[in-house]
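Worked example

This section walks through a single chain of length 130. The input is the sequence exactly as stored; nothing has been trimmed or padded.
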Amino acid sequence: MRTQRNTHVLCMRPARVCAQVQLVLEHCDKGTLRDALDQGVFMDPSGLNYAAILDSAIDIARAMLHLHCNNVLHMDLKARNVLLASSGTEERGVSCKVSDFGKHELWSITCHAKGSTHRLISSKESLERP
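Given that input, the structure is written out below as tokens.
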């Protein structure tokens, strides 16, 4: 089943070149959120640029919602794993993209109707079950 693309999740596509499988990643030309924070990008002459900070937080929240709605837990969300890409449509000039899915987990939810029991099962756990 194919899921919809989310503009705040780094786009990755498998590519086959000479019998090798490679990933082609979306280019994010503004570096990481950690670098931007260290460089004071979210500061303006009067202090913190709250609008830019909140817009960036919303981008990240939308990405995480998209992942969670597709049963993916990122498990390593931090400023270094949020990339910034130039954007002509964003007032702050960049868009945040969640990246680095090296530690992600796929989860399924088991629900029992009468007892209202909910249990999360990770992809590793479901593979280890008989």
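What to look for: The beta strands are 12-17, 20-25, 43-44, 47-48, 72-73, 82-86, 94-98, 105-112, 117-122.
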